[in-house]
Amino acid sequence: MSIEVVKEGNLLRxxxxxxxxxxxxxxxxxxxxxxxxAAARLAWSRLPGESRDDLLHQAQSCSYQxxxxxxxxxxxxxxxxxANWLAMEDFKA
Length: 93
Prior knowledge:
Mean pLDDT: 77
Low-confidence stretches: none
Radius of gyration: 29 Å
Strand order of the largest sheet: 1-2
Number of helices: 2
Helix content: 25-40%
Strand content: 5-15%
Distance between the termini: 69 Å
Largest sheet: 2 strands, antiparallel
Shape: elongated
């Protein structure tokens, strides 16, 4: 059922209704934002637990990357001579 209402002072006046509203019926009205949040929670709850964990991990990873790229960090610059670096064969097992 869809209902269009207009606020007039402390009252809501029904402008249009797709169906007749039964006498004494309690109706709950939600804003568009509340409906979107409820739909998002429903979609999230329908995901398998493993998928939710993966999505959370990805979100945390993005947040971590943004945090690490924050301009408030001091830049660390290494100016070592490449001759002092270890050769890759030093790391082979």
